[in-house]
Design a protein that fits this description.
Strand content: 25-35%
CATH architecture of the largest domain: 3-Layer(aba) Sandwich
CATH topology of the largest domain: Rossmann fold
Number of strands: 20
Shape: globular
Number of domains: 2
Structural class: alpha/beta
């Protein structure tokens, strides 16, 4: 039996022995929009919360539009042209509109990558497209502190714009519950000090800081408080299916429009399963998410609810750009030198996480759950030694070994990786 996993820009074909009992976990078929642009334009006139776009644009002299960085497959070529044309039609000058890449603490997107991200040459040729730099003090303004004490500093280009619009993809997120909406703002265009505060262990170790959880999620609550401090923000939220076709698109007030998108995608992205498995095969979602090992951790966390304690999780990730940032490499090296217990105690003692340290912290969750086996063609031997998981040069052989070790021929396969979150629901 052959099954294709999302891997890089193509697919990785996995050949499974015929005697295995295979449960392939996918989203149910999602409804698709016949004309996403027409749907979006209709939403401009009748938004999910807040004033319509024409009203907002007529009152504005300047506009700042946030887009996600290259790690998210947002269909910007669909979103940006109708949005920008609507702003121009309302009287905004092109020179007063800026498109800001919400990088958080990720690296900037430049040149051909930036053009790929934007997706439309007309946009690149006619509008300023710039990156957010979280460590540039001068480009941020302070909004005060949250009730928990987080110092809130956001990119001044967004804060000071008359019209603020965030665009994003709504999908499961292993810390914030769901991506999109408020998350594009914080951490998207937040200062490093803000990001490292709410990525510290006091948030990350909370049990509700998890996939598909918003109620009681301290990170989500912090983000909502930041939105309230900022004031009026609009958003375009998008939901896509496994083949990255648009199932939903809307415009409206950032919190209400985001929740409408969450309500839509939740039905499909959370998949109930009546059993747990000793062997689970998954991916890191393919390009662009699996460009680094840093992002690969999301794919390891997603299926944990259906992995039997002590089971084996086999994950495929291209890692075409290697490990990730230098800071993440340092964090992984610290984990390998300290061991899991010492590392956790170390980060729990700090009020601010080191840059990208939280991803190493999240890696502890699958490591505590069982064995993780990684198939990749993108990491050197030295880099593999820092992953804290078991590498394999043959995913087929790794699966056979995991099944033999468990003496259990029932396995689960999640081709789309972290975009699907299986939930153990006995008795269904």
């Amino acid at each position: 039996m052959d099954i294709s996993l999302n891997y890089g820009k193509t697919q990785l074909v996995v050949t499974l022995p015929d005697d295995l009992e295979v449960s392939v976990i996918r989203k149910p078929d999602m409804p698709l929009l016949d004309d996403p642009v027409a749907t979006l334009e209709a939403s401009f006139a009748k938004p999910d919360g807040g004033p319509n776009l024409a009203y907002l644009a007529r009152k504005a002299q300047t506009a700042c539009i946030l887009i996600c960085d290259i790690t998210r497959p947002v269909p910007n070529s669909v979103l940006l042209p109708p949005l920008l044309r609507a702003l121009l039609a309302a009287g905004l000058g092109r020179e007063n509109i800026v498109i800001l890449v919400a990088t958080g603490l990720h690296r900037p997107n430049e040149d051909e990558e930036l053009a790929e991200l934007v997706g439309d040459p007309w946009v690149m040729e006619n509008f300023a497209v710039v990156n957010h730099f979280a460590r540039d003090d001068a480009s941020h303004v302070s909004l005060g502190r949250t009730r928990s004490g987080t110092k809130v500093m956001l990119d001044k280009r967004f804060v000071e714009a008359d019209l603020r619009i965030a665009t994003g993809l709504v999908e499961p997120h292993f810390m914030a519950g769901w991506s999109g909406g408020r998350k594009v703002i914080a951490p998207g265009v937040a200062h490093a000090e803000t990001i490292t505060t709410f990525h510290s262990a006091r948030f990350m170790e909370h049990p509700n800081c998890a996939n598909c959880v918003l109620d009681g999620n301290p990170l989500h609550d912090e983000q909502l408080e930041i939105i309230a401090m900022l004031g009026c923000v609009s958003a375009i939220n998008v939901v896509i299916d496994e083949d990255r076709r648009i199932s939903m698109i809307n415009f409206g007030e950032v919190v209400k429009s985001h929740m409408a998108a969450v309500d839509h995608v939740r039905t499909y992205a959370e998949v109930p399963m009546p059993e747990r498995f000793s062997t689970v095969i998954t991916s890191a979602a393919g390009y662009p998410l699996d460009k680094t090992y840093y992002q690969t951790v999301k794919g390891m966390v997603g299926p944990l609810d259906i992995l039997k304690p002590g089971g084996t999780l086999v994950i495929a990730s291209a890692c075409s750009e290697g490990m990730g940032s230098a800071e993440y490499v340092t964090s992984q090296r610290n984990l390998m030198n300290m061991g899991a217990d010492r590392f956790l105690k170390h980060i729990e003692s700090k009020s601010h996480a080191a840059v990208d340290e939280w991803q190493t912290e999240m890696l502890l969750k699958p490591l505590r759950s069982g064995q993780v086996v990684l198939y990749t063609e993108g990491l050197t031997e030295e880099e593999l030694s820092l992953t804290a998981v078991k590498p394999t040069t043959s995913i087929d052989q790794a699966i056979v070994a995991a099944v033999a070790n468990a003496n259990d021929k029932r396995i689960a396969v999640i081709p789309e990786g972290p975009y699907v979150v299986p939930r153990y629901r006995p008795g269904i």
